[in-house]
Design brief:
Elements (H helix, E strand, L loop, with lengths): L2 H25 L3 H41 L2 H33 L25 H8 L4 H6 L3 H20 L4 H21 L2 H16 L2 H5 L1 H26 L2 H8 L1 H10 L2 H15 L3 H14 L2 H17 L6 H14 L9 H9 L11 H4 L2 H26 L9 H7 L1
Helix pairs in contact: 1-8, 1-12, 2-6, 2-7, 2-8, 2-13, 2-14, 3-10, 3-14, 3-15, 3-16, 3-19, 10-15, 10-19, 12-13, 12-19, 13-14, 13-19, 14-19, 15-17, 15-19, 16-17
């Protein structure tokens, strides 16, 4: 499918969704009526996202196994993984520090002057499993079928690493029949992905219409300061990521941005990293990143390199503290940074994951969990920006790792990759 045509269709669908949502909100008799109308739009959005989730597990498995098996030896896997993790850690720290700096500078919550709620008040989100021990044990699947059924990307990644390494060993002994089967599975999944992506504009329209129907445009004005400062932070983070990417990729970083604009727009409009994953892999291939690199680094990044989400968590926790006049010292904020670094890992498989991480972090610093209600109503607007940033960060990380691995210059193979589509 023509990439530019789909990008234009998604852009038009976003604008139409805002317009239709505004009209529905304006003509709704009350809040319940608006929610009822939004529910009909959400049917379309839910179907589209279910179709995306339908292809994620087999797509990740097929591409990752193919990539690992083609590397030939375990040292290549370890080398690429180390380079990716170094980028992920540095990007996560930078995202958190930038978010904390901006919240301390602008202090968006200070004007609210809220009274502390009862200790029993809670936002009702599950937080018990978000700790280091739970994260480490959760990484290793007890059943690959269960992991695939739940789209547990990190668990699928672990199994695929073992499977790909074993397949590479068998392949080295001259047995290639199953290797070809996996390659064909990957090709089939990319074709299915293309079919699903043709429905993206409809899903985007319904998602935007549902949000605006319930919240209205006024919510953007009520929380305008917080939202604008958050998006300013994202803009600065984009600038930082692209600047570092330029050091490795040179002028071709602009070409990369051009190729990934469609998955970024898709992630922004649907607030779903899963919806952008298939198109991100495809866009990186068109840019020149070999599938053996992208199919390994990208799934890893979905669990360890969520730059936009990291910044959001810093914003949210400190905003809640400011809203209730709770002062967190510099030392406490550094500890907060470390806590968020740990609790956020592997959160990609959790619905509204950033909210869950924030809810888990609040009690650790004696902040009221009820404060989460302050931002839950507008979380969709934050989610759109942070999800798009996650896609940018992971795309840059994958391209940089490919460059460090000494792969062919991306610009040299852009045209052949496009010709294959």
């Amino acid at each position: 499918m023509n990439t530019q045509k789909l990008t234009r269709q998604i852009g038009v669908a976003m604008l139409l969704g805002v317009l239709v949502g505004y009209l529905c909100h304006s003509f709704s008799t009350d809040a319940q009526a608006a929610k009822d109308i939004a529910g009909y739009f959400s049917i379309v959005t839910d179907i589209f996202l279910r179709m995306i989730k339908m292809i994620i597990a087999p797509l990740v498995f097929a591409t990752l196994v193919t990539g690992v098996a083609s590397m030939g030896d375990a040292s290549a896997v370890g080398r690429i993984g180390l380079k990716a993790m170094l980028w992920f850690i540095c990007a996560s720290v930078a995202s958190l520090l930038l978010g904390m700096a901006l919240v301390n500078l602008f202090e968006p919550g200070n004007h609210m002057q809220l009274v502390l709620p009862d200790a029993a008040a809670s936002a009702g989100l599950k937080t018990a499993d978000l700790n280091l021990r739970g994260f480490i044990t959760h990484v290793f699947p007890k059943s690959i079928a269960e992991a695939m059924a739940g789209n547990e990307i990190l668990q699928i990644l672990v199994f695929s690493l073992f499977f790909g390494a074993a397949l590479g060993f068998v392949k080295g002994q001259g047995h290639t029949a199953f290797d070809k089967c996996i390659d064909e599975l990957a090709r089939i999944m990319f074709r299915i992905t293309d079919y699903v992506m043709r429905l993206a504009p409809i899903g985007v329209f319904a998602a935007m219409a549902a949000v605006i129907t319930v919240q209205g445009l006024g919510v953007l004005l009520s929380y305008g300061k917080l939202i604008s400062e958050f998006y300013l932070g994202l803009a600065l983070l984009w600038g930082l990521l692209l600047a570092v990417g330029y050091l490795f990729l040179g002028k071709s970083v602009g070409e990369l941005l051009k190729h990934i604009r469609e998955p970024i727009m898709l992630a922004f409009s649907t607030a779903s990293s899963e919806s952008a994953y298939p198109k991100t892999i495809d866009s990186l291939e068109k840019f020149g990143v070999p599938k053996r690199i992208s199919s390994f680094v990208l799934p890893l990044g979905y669990s360890f390199n969520l730059d936009g989400s990291m910044m959001y968590q810093a914003f949210a926790v400190l905003f809640i503290a400011q809203a209730y006049n709770i002062n967190l010292s510099f030392t406490q904020q550094l500890v907060l940074l470390l806590v968020l670094m740990v609790t956020s890992k592997g959160m990609a498989g959790v619905a509204r994951a950033s909210l869950v991480v924030v809810a888990a972090t609040l009690p650790m610093f004696h902040l009221p969990e009820a404060g989460l209600l302050l931002i839950m109503g507008i979380d969709q607007f934050f989610d759109m920006g942070r999800t798009a940033t996650n896609v940018l960060g992971n795309s840059l990380a994958t391209a940089v790792v490919a460059k460090l691995e000494g792969e062919q210059n991306p610009q040299e193979i852009v045209q052949p990759a496009e010709a294959r589509t």
